[in-house]
Amino acid sequence: FRPEYKTLDMLRSYTGQEVPIVACTATAATSIFSTIWTSLGFGNRPFWGLDVGCGRPNLLFLTRTVTNPKNPVLDLLNLLPEILNNDTPLASIDKILIYFDSEQNCLDGVDTLREALPEHLRNCVYNFSGTMSEDAKETCWKGFMDGTYRIICCTEAAGMGCNVPDVKITVIVGSPKCPRSLSIVAQRWGRTARGRETIGTCIFLVPKWAF
């Protein structure tokens, strides 16, 4: 997904074969592994590959049918604190990532969530998409990291740059369209509870036909 990655083999022109290179990735199908092998010029020296698996015992995985297809965020309002009033503290809202299939659906999700929150908490919901400026992206992740923002409605652009260790919940809204592959689902869910002391929940909202 990054065109520059295909030109990494140029590094070998500067380093030669004697300098070891380590390639790490959380999700790599066989085809991706072949691309990495070619791009980094592996194979001319001894090679070691280590597959540590994808076991995440601190994660709970749930798949649910969307009951409000016109506005799936309505299915997620139960993730908010049970009591919402002018005294509800910001920290009572779990850190949540919600993945949508389009920027417009992100914005609609932000609007729905803000309407459900007391006025003093509405700014804790933020959106993230690829069309944002680099400064805006940095502001988003910084606010999410320090807890100023609690809920991020995002597109797949949030796959890069998100390294927040205490995300409690990650939701993939698979309506109207589901992700193109299982590896995309795994990558998005992988943003949950990256700090191993955190217990996280991964939710996949799918249309009825998926069952």
Automatic annotation (TrEMBL):
E.C. no: 5.6.2.4
Catalyzed reactions: Couples ATP hydrolysis with the unwinding of duplex DNA by translocating in the 3'-5' direction
Recorded superkingdom: Eukaryota
A family per Pfam: Helicase_C
Enzyme class, spelled out: isomerase
One GO BP annotation of this record: double-strand break repair via homologous recombination
Keyword Lyase attached: no
GO CC annotation terms, alphabetical: chromosome; cytoplasm; nucleus
Matching SMART domains: HELICc (SM00490)
Domain Helicase C-terminal: 75-211
GO molecular function, one term: DNA binding
Keywords, sorted A to Z: DNA-binding, Hydrolase, Isomerase, Nucleus
Family, as annotated: Belongs to the helicase family. RecQ subfamily.
Name of the protein this chain belongs to: DNA 3'-5' helicase
Source species of the chain: Mycena pura
Lineage: Eukaryota, Fungi, Dikarya, Basidiomycota, Agaricomycotina
